[in-house]
Amino acid sequence: MFLGEYELRIDHKGRMAIPSKFRDAFRAGLVLSRGFDRCLNIYTMAEWGKMAEELVSLPVTQLNPRRIARFTFSGAYDFAPDRQGRIILPITLREYAGISDEIVMVGSYTHLQIWARALWAEEKKFMAENAAEIAEAVEL
Among 35, 59, 101, 103, whose CB has the most other CB atoms within 10 angstroms? Predict the structure, then answer.
């Protein structure tokens, strides 16, 4: 279970360190992919497999499912963290998410999200100001 918010930095080689409390979850590897909100997602290999199975089960005869699968899989990279728990954030993903050197890693229960610090501040402000309306619009 991934929870919390962590401020991190990208080093001069484009690497970021996964917080130590999460490193064991990624020992078998991880998948880094584009998220839908100009953020990046980090999945364990097991969780990526579940998510990928859902995507490939969508009807390929419809345009939107094909586009979502294309968007997701073309922007996904598998990694094994180094001994210090670091991974390289590919330049294409950094550009997509507007990441330079300061990031915020956010727990999303089944996976982690990586946000450019400024974009996370905007998203967090929006959520705080609109939480009641957002909650009402969600059907459980």
Answer: 103
